[in-house]
Amino acid sequence: MSTIFESIVRGEIPCHKVWEDDHHLAFLDINPRVEGHTLVIPKKPWDEVFAMPEEDYDGLWRAARTVAHHLERRTGCARVVVVILGYEVPHVHIHLMPTNRLEDFPFPPVDGAAVAKLGETAELLAWDSEEG
């Protein structure tokens, strides 16, 4: 089944394009969290960012950096916040949001239960030398 992003890439659904190259497209999010909230997508559909082949993954991040620098120049923002959620549309996309202070970004609250388990979680996640 085709995603909304594939329809946008094919030109079947309009978008507010910010930037494009042969393999990537950047356009304004239709539900912006801040002014200038931009999505950067690969034109080839991938469901999950860490499942992408290395060359495609690296290319996506180069595209995101290009667009982030563009947003900084055009908006004059202090920095561009990067978010990858991966749940909204099953097509890899990077959210880029121009910001000037932490309060500009809708960051989730601290998880008190996770704080209480930091030591336990660190043990669970500690890299084992047998893993490589």
Q: Overview of this structure, please?
A:
With 132 residues, the chain is an alpha+beta fold. It has one domain (4-106): HIT-like (HIT family, subunit A). Helices cover 31% and strands 19% of the residues. The protein contains four helices and five strands, in the order αβββαββαα. It has helices spanning 4-9, 54-75, 112-116, 118-125; strands at 17-20, 24-28, 38-42, 79-83, 94-99. It has a five-stranded antiparallel beta sheet with strand order 1-2-3-5-4, with helices on one face. Strand 1 and strand 2 form a beta hairpin. The longest helix is centred in the middle third of the chain and has 22 residues, at 54-75.
Layout of strands and helices, then pairs:
Layout: H1 4-9, E1 17-20, E2 24-28, E3 38-42, H2 54-75, E4 79-83, E5 94-99, H3 112-116, H4 118-125
Antiparallel strand pairs: 1-2, 2-3, 3-5, 4-5
